Amino acid sequence: MYRRTALRSAGVLGAVGSLAGCLGGLGGSNPNVTLAEPDRRFESDDVPYPAWGERIPDVTLRAPLDDRELRLRDAEEPGLLTFFYSHCNTVCPVLISTMRNVQTHAGNNGYEDGIAFFPVTFDPARDTATRLRTYADEMHVDAAAGNWHFLRPGSKDRAKAVVEEQFGVAFRRTEPEEMDMYMFSHGALTLLVNAEGNVERAYRSK
User: Fold this and answer.
1) Tens digits of per-residue pLDDT, 141-177?
2) Helix (H, G, I), strand (E, B) or coil at 165
3) What is the pTM of this model?
4) Which of 52, 94, 107, 112 has the most other CB atoms within 10 Å of its CB?
């Protein structure tokens, strides 16, 4: 009940505007997913990121605000997964705000226990537990609700391996290397994943 409600209700992601994809009806030819195959011009294995019907990579990351390691495939409820860094002033605030809006919708409509949120930073050098707590306040995210889990790779190499190589989200730090307030050029991807770890929808920007 909660799982299907969460998958239907997560359709509010359509408000992102620049993110591609739309929620179709329930059902479809793939027994691993609930939502029907989206109308698109490519197959899931033709893109670098996990797409409809594919299982997400078997990744374990630190959830610093929860003080634990979290294996994404072990989630027991549908989830929204995105990739960001907290000093971004372009698309990342949109990604996080959209997830926050779904979190608020879930709380207001009684399915907050049926969906989880997994924003993964690719800037672990600056996105410490202290910074992520501050960022949650800045973005009006209820990080203490129990369904919101900031995830942080342990190093820049680990971030590259997970975010870019396994999830297909490219990012490049601005130069020079010694710059304190560096930024990233990066892609944008949000995944709607069911409780079995299969992608129901992949929303991306071009």
Assistant:
1) 999 999 999 999 999 999 999 999 999 999 999 886 7
2) helix
3) 0.86
4) 52
